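Lecture notes, unit on protein representations.

Consider one protein chain, 255 amino acids long.
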Amino acid sequence: MRRPIADEIRFRKSRSLPIRSNNSVRRTYDLLRSALPAMGQDATLSEGELAAAFSASRNTIRLVLRLMAAEGLVTRGPKTGTTVASSTVLAIGELFPLSQWSMGRPLVGKTLEVRVIPAFAAIRERLRLPEGSSVTVVEGLVLDGGVPLAIFVSYAVLTGEQAGEMRESELSVISFLEERLGVRIERSDTVIAALTSDEQTAQLLGIKPGSALLSIEDVLRDDTGRPWAVCQIRCRGDRAVFSAPDRRRHAARED
């Protein structure tokens, strides 16, 4: 029995439609977000090209772009279309001063406060300091082209005289320890976490309260394993992308 003409037309149209093998908002979002830095600031995004590249429907692409626009990752306009906002790729596989932290362009550290305080118990334990010790607190901003990217706070094993010298030199904690004190920072114990912005952080970074942040904490150690500083940094989730090389460790095979 021959199928009705209407059914035949629908069948032929369905065969011409592309198969969307990755039509997931979550997976498409993750893939596109990781690709944004390579596209560059102000790159124009085409819904049709994205749909083909990520094997997703236009509706999925539109939803992903709306999510990214709400987070400040892209900008959308009736005449300008969708363009990529600025992203800063930060290398976390190695310990660098702030001026060398980003991949592709330098960042600038702006110090807000340097002062000596009594080392409270939590810091004494992490820096292996005896009771009655003091530490230097350094707080400031990381700027990318004048735009606040992150807030940093460091608790460093520095004397009052060294703190004053650091304030005058405007060096980062790592640079000061290595260049002025001759300490060779070899490694760190690093913890990365996701946070939301409180009102004070939001005001300093020029973002809305509740915005996504990435927190990085490093305990800086020299070649003997001695800790010299606890460094904490809060980065804007809409501007910071982290990159680190890694190697897979294979378990030894038993014969």
